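Annex B. Sample input.
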Amino acid sequence: MRMGGAPGNDDSGLIRAARDGDRDAFGLLVERYRDAVWRTVRRTLGNTADAEDAVQEVFIRALVGLDRFDPRYPFAPWILRIAANYCIDRLRRRKTDRTRLWSDLSESEERRVLERMSTLPHADEGEPDRGRYLEVARGLLERLPAKRRMAFVLREIEGREYAEVAAALGVPETTARVRVWRARHELHREFRKLEKKGEG
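Annex B, continued. Sample output.
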């Protein structure tokens, strides 16, 4: 799977050259995958400055660990796994910080998540309850454990297949599904509480 769409050499050729010390080859890999890594870390860490630092750190770790990369497998899941591990470590170290997971989501992305989570999936854009649902969802996602939050970001916001989520997190696909399901379940539970308040 190619994420960046940069023309030229395929990943395997660039990786071989980078292993031999070709800085330009590694630079092309960075160019090819930077946007995908940026989106993932930005939406997980919720802070632009932190995300910039994270992107740099992810590619430094990739460069240092390039000799351990198995060329029989795609590069994309490997670099995303480095990004996921970095984000999980950062989230664990700053448990008391409040981050805005959805701060850069578009209206359509917010709505897509709400449609999957809410029992009122087809509310009009002007529906007054929509704002309350967003606030509940944001607050809950900020409190999710790091691993569960990472899985949710990759699946529900990035829109990746479960196999990709599992590869990025370095876990079996079943584990990835369970983590996403638990996040969904918690959101459903909070939404039901909100609906009951509205009925009262």
